[in-house]
């Protein structure tokens, strides 16, 4: 069983043109900072938003409806269970130890050898 209760939001729901994306607090902070920068400059651009189901490219400018709402865990509830429920589980890295991986394999840090010509 994980920790009980939370001191702050475990994530955020970003709403963009009626679509909802569940993100970690860190990603929400980065997204909101980029959005604020664009709004202050009076500009618009595509902003990548990594979320619980993948990555979305969102057009951000002043005329685009966009908002965020915190995801909180009530006192007494299991925080890790809530993260799993919202798709906010900490994912393990695909590459752990590359010492024994053959060159060009998915676990190799070198990656495939590219041949030109």
Q: What is the element layout, followed by pairings?
A:
Blueprint: E1 11-16, E2 19-23, H1 25-41, E3 45-51, E4 54-60, E5 66-71, H2 79-86
Antiparallel strand pairs: 1-2, 1-5, 3-4
Overview of this protein structure:
The protein is α+β, with helices and mostly antiparallel strands. The protein has a domain at 11-86. The protein is 21% helix and 26% strand. The chain has helices at 25-41, 79-86; strands spanning 11-16, 19-23, 45-51, 54-60, 66-71. The protein has a three-stranded antiparallel beta sheet. Strand 1 (11-16) and strand 2 form a beta hairpin. The longest helix has 17 residues, at 25-41. It is elongated. The N and C termini lie far apart (56 Å). The model is unreliable at 107-117 (pLDDT under 50).
